[in-house]
Structures are given as structure tokens and as C-alpha cells.
Amino acid sequence: MKLTIRDLSFYYGSHTILDNVSMEVPEGSLTAVTGPSGEGKSTLLSIVNRLWSADEGARAEGSAKARFAHGEVDLLSPGLNLPSLRRKAAMVFQAPTPLPFTIFKNASLPLSFAGIKNKDEVRRLVERALTRAGLWEEVKDRLHTPATHLSGGQQQRLALARALVTEPEILLLDEPTSALDPQSRDHIEAQLLALKGHCTILLVSHSEAQVARLADRVYRLTGGQLALCTESRATP
């Protein structure tokens, strides 16, 4: 398994968000978590790449481990190397979030943080990420124009490219199409299906129809409890 969570509980102060949940995410699969709003689906994603802090009153108990190419990582370890983890487990959020830079700089920024400075290598990785996000053909002749000039759907595919540019092993998606029109949603879904097998995808979505179209394995989170609902496609 790429990701294994066992008997995990998560708290903000005295408030229980996740209550003794367990899940397994097979390598190369697209696993979805669905359920009502406000039930902790985004919190579950935040545990995988540690977008939470004990300094803010958060507390996790149980076990959460990811198996990367270099070995197994304890996602709850206090000494976790967060920049390294977030290169391997990248996140795409709900709303398109272009930074106030060019399209190229938006896509390449994570490479700067990773210390990759060779211009040829940066360009190769940016082109690869934009291609995998289904955006390259639309922007290849205007890479140095502001990203804010893109449509909403293109901006979200740019966010997907930015997540993919460091070639993560796990891709975390938090309602990535909920703010998009149907055509833009379909573009994103097509790219996610193409990505299966290249990386492991964990998708949060409130759309039962979307989950049915995309997911190999579906969990439902309600009242802090997580249940495996179905394995709708053959997992790798």
C-alpha cells in the first residue's frame, strides 16, 4: 500500500474531527473520499502532507504512514522533513490559485524551492508538468504572460501542473473541480484518469457522480467515521 492509516484520531482542542479512522490507498490508484461538507475530508488530506501544526492546538493519535521510493515515512513524526514530504505528496486545492507571476514561473516555482536551477532541466520539467496537466498546447506560446490572464479552468490546470512539476509520488486533490464549469471539470477529470498509474491519487469530492467516474476505491466520511464503500474499478 502507498498510504496506510490505522486507528487515527485527530483533534482541534477538545473537538474531535476524525475518530479512530483507518484506510488503505493502493499504489497507482485513484482513491476518493466523499461525504457531507464539514466532516473532516480536507483534514484527512492535511494529515498526509502535514498541513497542520500542534502549535495551533491540533493533535493526532494513531498511525499514518506513506511508502515512498526511498522508504516508509511516518507522517505523524515530529521530526518529519516537511519540504521533502511536500515534494513527494503534493496538494491541489479547491479554488484556482495563480500566483502574481508568469505562467512559467507559476509552474516552475516548486523547482526553485527544491534547489533545481539548471535552466534546461527546469524547462523540461515544466513542459512535462504542463503536458500532464493538459495545458501545454494552450500556453506554450505565451509562457511569459501573467497567469491571471488564464481562464478559471486553465488556472486550475496550472495549479495541477505546479503540483506535478516535482514529480510527486502522491497527488492530493481537495475538491479540485467544484469551482469550475462542466467543460473545465471534464478537462481536469481526463487528466486525472491519464495520471493514474504514474502517481497515487487521493481525491476529496462531494460529487458522488465524479467519484463514480474516477475512483478505484471509495471511502465515505461521516461524523468523524470513515467507511470503505466500494472498489468500483480494478485497482492496479
UniProtKB/TrEMBL annotation:
Short name of one Pfam family: ABC_tran
One GO process term, biological-process aspect: phosphate ion transmembrane transport
Entry keyword Transport: yes
Domain of life: Bacteria
Cellular compartments per GO CC: membrane
Keyword Glycoprotein: no
GO molecular function annotations of the record: ATP binding; ATP hydrolysis activity; phosphate transmembrane transporter activity
Domain ABC transporter: from-to ranges: 3-236
Assigned keywords, A-Z: ATP-binding, Nucleotide-binding, Phosphate transport, Transport
InterPro entries, sorted: AAA+_ATPase, ABC_transporter-like_ATP-bd, ABC_transporter-like_CS, P-loop_NTPase, PstB-like
PANTHER family according to UniProt: ABC TRANSPORTER I FAMILY MEMBER 17 (PTHR43423)
Name of the protein in question: Abc transporter-like
